[in-house]
Specification:
Layout (H helix, E strand, L loop, with lengths): L6 E4 L5 H10 L1 E3 L9 H7 L5 E3 L8 H6 L5 E3 L10 H6 L3 E3 L6 H16 L2 H9 L20 E5 L3 H10 L5 E5 L6 H7 L1 E3 L3 H7 L2 E4 L13 H4 L7 E4 L8 H9 L5 E4 L10 H5 L3 E3 L8 H19 L7 E3 L5
Parallel strand pairs: 1-2, 1-3, 3-4, 4-5, 6-7, 6-9, 7-8, 9-10, 10-11, 11-12
Antiparallel strand pairs: 5-13
Helix pairs in contact: 1-13, 5-7
The protein binds 2-keto-D-gluconic acid.
Length: about 325
């Protein structure tokens, strides 16, 4: 189906270059202030829209989708699609696309940053200095953990998990992984990664854990209060995937009581709210969901969105289709 002069709603401010390209080809409803649209506003604005470009900060539920009477495509600006009701989209014959691949490397870089920062207590060390408490070098000050030789458990060995494993190799760690499906032998060999079918067994052996699975009903609180208790006393846990995968309150309590080594979190269960106890713990690095926040990633994500829209409006199948229509 060719779609002529579609109206496109972009919920947030995208890179100038991307908005400019879209403007040359389509009728846009922009969000110049970048302020998150309220649920009510979004519902009203979507009424006459053919294509929606939402972000992770927008909850596109059944009611919003059904309010888009002309809605035909949701071209998500992001990889994860847990913010979208895929079932309703499919029922309403609304196609959904995402932006895979283009944010893999930047996300993996941030994982490495978090591992290094926490292992070497970079934040605590800097705090001592900037707060004027540094009295000079001391042999037992700000003692971190050596990374070499540690066991790193990766949960979800997809694109990002593999990119993390690749980077970890130069640090001389042992790489463990747990995945829905075991990787092919040659891929395991490439990343020197050892497969563990039993997640509990793997995490109980790991010194560092990094989460890279998508958020689905099955992975909600995958790290439950009970499972978190299996973590080693010095274990560092990294989450750049989705906050809902960890029981944040249970994790915050463990960190606060120093029952685990630390945490590097770029995502939270109730963004932008953060469990107070996390803020009160000193063995954490907490970031405001910036894993893919580089200009290069953002532009590439936008270009991916444009590619999907152009394919769709010219009657072709968009390359990054997440849900297939019933009539396929
Ligand atoms: C993006 C992300 O910044 O793509 C994802 O799944 O979590 C982020 O890195 C976000 O989705 C943009 O909407």
């Amino acid at each position: 189906m060719h779609l002529k002069n579609p109206i496109i709603l972009i919920t947030r401010k995208l890179p100038e270059k991307i908005e400019k390209t879209l403007k040359q080809n389509f009728n846009l409803i922009l969000n110049k202030t970048d302020k998150k649209l309220s649920y009510k506003d979004l519902k009203k604005k979507i009424d006459n829209v053919d294509i929606l470009i939402p972000c992770v900060s927008d909850t596109i539920d059944a009611s919003i989708i059904k309010s888009g009477k002309k809605l035909k495509l949701i071209a998500n600006f992001g990889n994860g699609v847990d913010n979208l009701d895929l079932v309703t989209a499919k029922e309403q014959n609304v196609l959904v696309t995402n932006t895979p691949d283009v944010l893999t490397e930047d996300t993996a870089d941030l994982v490495l940053t978090l591992i290094l920062m926490i292992s070497r207590k970079v934040i605590d060390a800097q705090k001592e200095l900037v707060e004027g408490n540094w009295t000079g070098w001391g042999p037992s000050k700000t003692i971190g953990q050596r990374i070499k030789g540690k066991k790193v458990g990766i949960i979800g060995m997809g694109r990002i998990g593999c990119a993390v494993a690749q980077r970890l190799q130069i640090l001389g760690v042992e790489i463990y992984y747990h995945n829905r499906r075991r990787l092919k032998k040659n891929v395991e060999k490439k990343y020197k990664a050892k497969y563990f079918h039993d997640l509990d067994y793997m995490i109980a052996q790991s010194d560092i854990i990094s989460i890279h699975c998508p958020y689905t009903p099955e992975t909600f609180h995958l790290f439950s209060k009970k499972r978190l208790r299996l973590l080693k006393k010095n274990c560092i846990i990294i989450n750049t995937s989705r906050g809902e995968i960890i029981d944040e309150e249970a994790l915050a309590n463990l960190l606060f009581q120093k029952k685990i080594g630390g945490a590097g979190l770029d995502v939270f269960e109730h963004e932008p709210q953060i469990t107070t106890r996390l803020l009160e713990s000193d063995n954490v690095v907490l970031l405001p969901h910036i894993s893919s926040a580089t200009l290069e990633s953002r532009i590439a994500m936008g270009q991916r969105v444009i590619k999907n829209i152009i394919a769709f409006t010219s009657g072709k199948s968009p390359p990054d289709l997440v849900n297939k229509p019933y009539y396929d």
